[in-house]
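Allow me, if you will, to draw on your knowledge of protein folds for a short while. I have a record of one protein: its chain in single-letter code and its fold written as discrete structure tokens. Kindly check, if you would, that the fold set down in the tokens agrees with what the sequence suggests. Thank you for your consideration; the sequence and its tokens are set out here:
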Amino acid sequence: MPNPTLRDEVFNTIDNRSDGLGVEKAMTETGTLLKTLFLGGLLSMSAFYTWYLVGAGFADKANILMTAGIIGGLITVLIACFGPKNKYLSITTSIYALCEGLFLGGISAIFNNYYPGIVTQAILGTMLTILGMYIAYSVKLIKVTDTLRKTIFIATFAVAGIYVLQWILMLFHASIPQIFSNSPIGIGFSIVVCAVAAFNLLVDFDFIEQFSGRTPNYMEWYGAFSLMVTIVWLYLEILKLLAKISSRR
């Protein structure tokens, strides 16, 4: 599936037998939303701290925390994705949010130093995109079909492949021409990637709806975590797009 954290295998390996679980102890969409907001709050708090460090001139300390955030975020993603799904998801997903916040706060402050006001625009753009995609999903303006899922999967895989190739080329002091620049081609590429990230939200919403009431309530943490992964990606892509546009002025 497009968002690798929401693979079918993840939910299909959960014991869906009731075993005395009442309806109140099953995964719900409301519970998942509340946990998403909680994780978003944790991310915002740690992001504010590294933002403050950059602004206060403690760039070295901020860089250390940003690096720790990247490494810690990667480790917790792997644990959450491939580890056992149980009550400890509340801990691993919370650590993920804090780690991502350390990185996002620092990188956002750096971008904002170059292009004042860009972070506010990126946050607003991300929120409006989430709201727009949720409304489109809720009113069935865009239906999540198997064809759409496959299309988003291919697009997401292609974007990931381009980023991996760029990373490899950077090791040899090279780069993919145009698409990572502020040229019209580069801006167009960023718009496409933002669209791919936005459409991943639809698939996330669909998975959460499908498995609500069918899995234990601790899986709300996993659903919230999966949404956060997509939201963080979307925010970063919007931030980069706005930076490309701003650098042309």
The longest helix spans residues 184-211. The chain is about 75% helix and 0% strand. Residues 22-246 form one domain.
